[in-house]
C-alpha cells in the first residue's frame, strides 16, 4: 500500500469512527430516550420527546458523512463541511458548558462528555484531512502522479 492510499484509509477510518459514534448515540437517544433524559435534566414525556428529537437531529447531522467516507479526496469539500459541523458542535457545547449556572451537576457531566468526544473527533478529522491534503495535492507522492479522481 502506498503512502497516498494509506492517508486515504486513515481519513476514512477517522470519519467512520466519528460517524459510528454519532449514529450509535443518535439511535440510542431515539430508541431509549428515557435512559438519557436525566443527563439533560429533563423528565416525563416532554423530556423524552426532547431527547428523541436530539437523536433525530444527530442523524440529520451525519447525512454528510457517507460520501466523504467513500472517497475523502474526491469529496474533500464535504469532508471540510463535516469538520466545520464538528467545530460548530464543539464551540456550541463548550459555550453552553461555560455558561451553565451552578447546581446542574448531571447536565455538566453530559456537557463534558460531549465536549470531550467532539473535541477528539474534531482534532482527529482535522489531522487526517491535513495529512490527506498534503499527500494528495502534491504532483507526485511516492513516485506516482497525483490522481484527480
Description:
- This protein is mostly helical and 149 residues long.
- It has one domain.
- It contains six helices and two strands, in the order H-H-H-H-H-H-E-E.
- The protein has a two-stranded antiparallel sheet.
- Strand 1 and strand 2 form a beta hairpin.
What keyword list fits this structure?
149 residues, 75% helix, two-stranded antiparallel ribbon
Task: Describe the structure concisely for a colleague.
This protein is 75% helix and 3% strand.
Number of DSSP E strands: 2
Radius of gyration equals 18 Å
Report the span from N to C terminus: 18 Å
Strand order of the largest sheet: 1-2
Would you tell me the structural class of the helices and strands? Answer: mainly alpha
Taken together, the total number of domains comes to 1
Mean pLDDT rating: 91
Total number of helices:
6
Low-confidence segments, given as residue ranges, are 140-146
**N to C succession of SSEs:** HHHHHHEE
Note the main sheet: 2 strands, antiparallel
Shape descriptor reads elongated
What percent of the residues sit in helical stretches (DSSP H or I)?
Answer: over 70%
Amount of beta strand: under 5%
